[in-house]
Design goal:
Strand order of the largest sheet: 4-3-2-1-10-11-12
Distance between the termini: 20 Å
Helix content: 25-40%
Number of strands: 12
Order of helices and strands: EHEHEHEEEHHHHEEEEEE
Largest sheet: 7 strands, mixed
Shape: globular
Structural class: alpha/beta
Radius of gyration: 18 Å
Strand content: 15-25%
Oligomer: single chain
Length: about 250
């Protein structure tokens, strides 16, 4: 029985990350290290800091990462790519060229007899009206069409500048630490969702850039994956046990 892996939030190409080439290589080394052991890899959003596909143009860079995804899918490993709030605008390029399975909405799936709820996590339980408006604009097809009318030279610079500003406006460019069960939006969302979906064993999210492993009920457990900027954390499920690990220079450790 082969493993199933979950990771998120690499934000490849970010102008706010000074070590971006080294970061991409580290991610690629990790994917290479698991390719013989993996049945599937779930990438739960924001793998790119800004990704926008035109009909005949895609963003510059990421060749090592995209090549490794293609190698995995060519080997028969399922690669599931979830869009996050930074790479909403993925359409069919990654599916056609790299063979990934694209998800634009949360997914409930049975894996080795356990039920998983998988999502990036943006917008779930967050009451911030400003964020909701921005999220609606980003998902709106008319707004997307208008943005695509911009020349890629200006559109990509605008998107990458926005993404950098979004990160750097936080103190130290870091996400706030865990806010507790009564204030953490994803925890509140999950506790509410579980009332009508008690059959779910594992909830796994990205987005928050924190490591969290929380037992919600006797059956249900919630995981937030951390990131691939400074933490290099991921979750592995071997069909019996699910645990979080950190990738450290070519080896993994709990």
């Amino acid at each position: 029985m082969k493993n199933i892996y979950f990771l998120s939030d690499a934000h490849l190409g970010s102008w706010a990350i000074p070590h971006q080439r080294m970061q991409e290589r580290r991610l690629v080394r990790f994917l290479d290290s698991i390719k013989e052991k993996a049945a599937a890899v779930y990438l739960l959003g924001d793998m790119f800091d800004f990704w926008y596909e035109y009909r005949y143009v895609v963003p510059k860079g990421y060749t090592r990462f995209l090549g490794k995804l293609s190698e995995l899918t060519d080997m028969g490993v399922e690669v599931h790519f979830f869009t996050g709030n930074h790479d909403i605008w993925a359409y069919d390029y990654l599916e056609k060229e790299c063979g990934v399975i694209l998800h634009k909405k949360p997914l409930t799936v049975e894996l080795y007899d356990k039920v998983f709820f998988l999502a990036h996590g943006d917008g779930m339980g967050d009451p911030d009206r400003k964020f909701k408006v921005i999220r609606w604009l980003f998902h709106n097809r008319c707004c997307q069409w208008l943005f695509s009318a911009l020349h890629p030279r200006w559109a990509m610079e605008l998107g990458l500048t926005w993404a950098k500003h979004s990160r750097m406006k936080r103190p130290g460019g870091e996400e706030p630490p865990y806010m507790g069960d009564t204030r953490e939006h994803l925890v509140l969302f999950t506790k509410d969702y579980i009332q009508t979906h008690p059959d779910i064993d594992y909830f796994i999210y990205g987005h928050r850039h924190i490591e969290l492993d929380l037992q919600l009920t006797r059956r249900s457990r919630m995981i937030i994956l951390g990131d691939w900027i400074s933490q290099f954390t991921y979750v592995v499920y071997d069909g019996e046990h699910l645990f979080m690990e950190e990738y450290v220079e070519g080896e993994s450790r709990p």
